[in-house]
Amino acid sequence: MATANQRGQHAHERGTGPGPEASDLYVLAVQLRRMNGEINRVVHGFAGAHTLHATDIQALAAILDAPEPMTPGRLRRHLGLTSGAVTACVDRLERAGHVRRVRESADRRVVHLHYVPEAREAARRYFRPLADAAVAARAHFDDGELAVVARFLAALNEELSHVVSDDR
């Protein structure tokens, strides 16, 4: 049985679609799916080890990556969940010791979600092999090539943010 990488290479060799762009796009899609699968494998391992849901891990990443303190409302919009589902998610994360709710504003209705430093450090240790893999892969590219890859991924993420599935 061929691996995803081999199937992508075979598709490239047989040239699916009307021209080289189609086969290159297919190979790129295969590699992006493969990368997504590998990352999800590690993420699901972390979720299982901490008795969390995959959505909880997405929430932790959103809290970690937010440019400003995350609120439950912004988290709800980011994850595309209902208010009740976000409350259940934050409750699980708080019980597991990953986040804490803080009322930092003069408006006591405003709640900010903070990633607990000890939990953040535990996640950093767990996901260190992903960072190491990125460093190892980076060694194969010069700065100009990495700049193109980063621009492509930023553009792809922007486009994907506008995709709405039919079941929403």
Describe it:
- The protein has 168 residues and is mainly alpha-helical.
- The chain has seven helices and two strands, in the order αααααββαα.
- The protein has helices spanning 4-14, 20-49, 54-65, 72-79, 83-95, 117-138, 143-160; strands spanning 99-102, 112-115.
- Strands 1-2 form a two-stranded antiparallel ribbon.
- The longest helix is centred in the N-terminal third of the chain and has 30 residues, at 20-49.
- The model is unreliable at 1-8 and 10-16 (pLDDT under 50).
Short description:
Helix content is 68%, strand content 5%.
Average pLDDT confidence is 86
Provide the low-confidence segments as ranges. Answer: 1-8, 10-16
- Number of separate helices: 7
Form type: globular
Largest sheet: 2 strands, antiparallel
**Helix proportion:** 55-70%
Radius of gyration: 19 Å
Number of strands: 2
Oligomer: single chain
Structural class: mainly alpha
Beta-strand percentage range: under 5%
Key phrases:
single chain, 168 residues, mainly alpha, two-stranded antiparallel ribbon, 68% helix
Task: Please give the structural blueprint.
Elements: H1 4-14, H2 20-49, H3 54-65, H4 72-79, H5 83-95, E1 99-102, E2 112-115, H6 117-138, H7 143-160
Antiparallel strand pairs: 1-2
Helix pairs in contact: 1-2, 2-6, 3-5, 4-5
